[in-house]
Amino acid sequence: MQTNQKYLEQTSVLIADDHQLVRDLLYDYISNQEEFSATVASSYDSTLEALETGQRFDIVLLDVQMPGMEGIVSIEKIIKQFPEPAVVIFSGTAPSEYVHEALMVGARGYIPKTLPFKSLASALKLIASGEVFVPSAFSITTLAQNQAMRFDLSENELTVLRKVRAGWSNKEIARHMVVSEVTVKMHMRAICLKLGAKNRTQVAVIALQEEIY
Fold first, then answer.
1. Mean pLDDT for the stretch of residues 8-34
2. Most exposed residue of 14, 45, 46, 72, measured as fewest CB within 10 angstroms of its CB?
3. Distance between CA atoms of residues 183 and 164, nearest Å
4. Which helix (H) or strand (E) segment is 19 a member of?
5. 92-96, 100-104, 193-197 — most confident range
6. Which of 5-14, 18-27, 74-83, 148-157 has the lowest mean pLDDT?
7. d(Cα 111, Cα 128) in Å, to the nearest integer?
8. What is the pLDDT of residue 155?
9. Does residue 211 contact residue 147 with C-beta atoms inside 8 Å?
């Protein structure tokens, strides 16, 4: 496992890919950006090992075709076991249906391996801020925006909703958003009112049903 940690406040990225050339290129690029640090893993098992070390990871770039991966099931397992890092599909090609299903289980986007490095840095920054990234060609981006608009959800409320769907506690959400737990509770009350939900469980269920992510 290769790692680079030069700055304490960097966004930490775990690159999980079985192709050495891809890993090396990404590692070299990401670790040379002042705002990022990088670690690599070459299989599903080594990805779990890296996550189990307790090292903080903000983003996991997850190759869905590397050894040990079992599609959406593996993505969901990682998200449930390690809810804090943003898990992002990293693949050469991925059908929109697959990406949509991954988002529904808590993934925070899809980054194709053909994405230019300059765009990659912007995508990682967006994801680290709590947003979801998918290429503009994917219609699901518009769907997500339309659904959020339909329920009149603010950006902060949408961020809280995404974290609730991923199983985060109010304390974890507050730490991620750099706000107080009281603020998170206020957002939750607003979300419940707008979705017609009685509690956070109903919020998560409605978000799944209405495909809000």
1. 90
2. 45
3. 14
4. none
5. 193-197
6. 5-14
7. 14
8. 77
9. yes
CA dist 132 to 46, 163, 198, 206, Å? 25, 11, 26, 19
Residue 104 has a pLDDT of 81
Instruction: Give, in order, the Cα–Cα distances in Å from 139 to each of 96, 98, 192, 195.
Output: 8, 13, 27, 23
Token reading at 201? 């469980």
C-alpha–C-alpha distance, residues 94 and 98, integer Å: 6
- Pairwise CA distance, residues 74 & 138, whole Å: 23
Q: Which of 16, 112, 109 is nearest to 66 (CA)?
A: 16
Residue 14 has pLDDT above 90, yes or no: yes
What ranges in 32-169 are assigned the alpha helix state H?
A: 44-52, 72-81, 96-104, 117-128, 139-150, 155-165
CA distance 146 to 161: 15
pLDDT (mean) for 15-37: 92
Residue environment code for 39-54, b if the CB has 16+ CB neighbours within 10 A, otherwise e: bbbbbbebbbebbeee
CA–CA separation, 58 and 84 (whole Å):
7
Torsions phi, psi of 113, nearest 5?
A: -70, -10
